[in-house]
Design brief:
single chain, 265 residues, mainly beta, Jelly Rolls, 2 domains, eleven-stranded mixed sheet, 2 helices
């Protein structure tokens, strides 16, 4: 009876501890790494960023050298060994390093659902992005379906921490250039992990943040294969980099491409 009473006491104490924890902090914080995706016919391509080196069968280092006010460098791209890609902006002499990798020449696709899980940077002066690009952009002006569109699934700037931007660019980058931006406001963007996705069909684009639709548009719909780019870029759009405390990083937990948007559980 004494042993049983002790066990009941432990159970009661554990229950009370759990209730106090829930009252103080609410639901548990999202895990640093998401579960692996279901291996079915709907998953076309993915990188879970396991290991300690970038998988160069899937990615290239894109645009090395001077880029806007930064300098794209291989050393700005690392894996932390905990299942995350880390893109870091840091000072190197008189340069500020930035990062850009792409699936160009390794993987491209038309249509489908494209998603990443990301923890955004904290410092101003540079922005992070998950975007798609067409190698034929602007070759046929007035026909985005044939030439493709730069699809910025997200751009995030820490100088406006409650906002995330989706943008489309088509008809090249010259005088015929057209664009359509959408800014989504969400108070918790600077905290923790977030999923950002694009459902791209023949008729439209539908953007999502944390599983909720943020923008639906039929402007500049591409009908040509596009490749993935993950990047950081330095520029005054994001504030003065001189006022940033560096190094600072954006983390990606995964990038996944599906035929269709998976059923949300």
């Amino acid at each position: 009876m004494k042993e049983r009473s002790g066990i009941l006491g432990l159970i009661f104490a554990s229950a009370m501890t759990l209730l106090v924890a829930l009252a103080a902090g609410g639901a548990a914080a999202p895990a640093d790494s998401a579960p692996p995706p279901a291996k079915d016919d709907n998953l076309i391509w993915n990188d879970e960023f396991d290991g300690t080196t970038l998988d160069t069968t899937k990615w290239i280092y894109r645009g090395l050298g001077l880029r806007k006010d930064g300098f794209n460098a291989k050393e700005a791209v690392t894996l932390d060994g905990q299942g995350h890609l880390v893109l870091t902006s840091s000072k190197s002499g008189d340069k500020v390093l930035s990062a850009m990798i792409a699936t160009q020449g390794k993987f491209d696709h038309t249509y489908g659902y494209w998603e990443c899980r990301v923890k955004f940077q904290r410092q101003i002066g540079f922005w992070s992005a998950f975007w798609l690009q067409s190698p034929k952009l602007g070759k046929v002006v007035g026909d985005a379906k044939a030439s493709g569109t730069e699809i910025d699934i997200f751009e995030y700037l820490a100088n406006r921490p409650g906002k995330i931007q989706h943008t489309l660019h088509w008809d090249g980058y010259g005088k015929e250039h057209k664009s359509a931006p959408k800014v989504h406001e969400q108070a918790d963007l600077a905290d923790g992990w977030h999923t950002v996705g694009l459902d791209w069909t023949e008729k439209e684009y539908v953007f999502y943040v944390d599983g909720k639709e943020t923008w639906r548009t039929d402007k500049g719909v591409s009908g040509t294969p596009e490749y993935i780019i993950l990047s950081t870029e330095v520029g005054t759009w994001a504030g003065k980099i001189a006022n940033a405390t560096l190094p600072d990083s954006v983390l990606f937990d995964y990038v996944r491409v599906y035929k269709q948007r998976p059923v949300q559980k």
